[in-house]
Amino acid sequence: DSQLAGPDQVRSETNATRKGTHRLMTVESGIATARRERALGTRIDSMFSRDRVWAWGFVVVLWAVVTYVAFATIGMVEDGAVKAAILISGALVLLFNTASIAAMVRHYSHDKDFIYGLDIRHLDERRERK
Question: Which of 12, 21, 46, 62 is spaced 20 to 30 A from 78 at the CA atom?
Fold first, then answer.
């Protein structure tokens, strides 16, 4: 019943086994890559969230400080035109700083993979050297 395999049949079975092993290794490396990318994505989202909180926290503090300074000092100024100039200047500072922080956060949200991915890669390289 059993037949001996010829050289061509053995070669064919060996290549099929190698291809199956290669496919298995490719799937395993693909899974590992997907896990690393998910972990990297989680780290990127975490860094971006932290930076966004700090950016908007700065805006809140800026508004509080400018508002306090305006109310604390406006009584010292008697000329109405100077009062208006001080208030308008303070409002413009708040407006432009708030707009610039909003633009920065929006830009970072669009390019966060590149920006934070580069930071994370450098942090990891530095950690490995130590």
Answer: 62
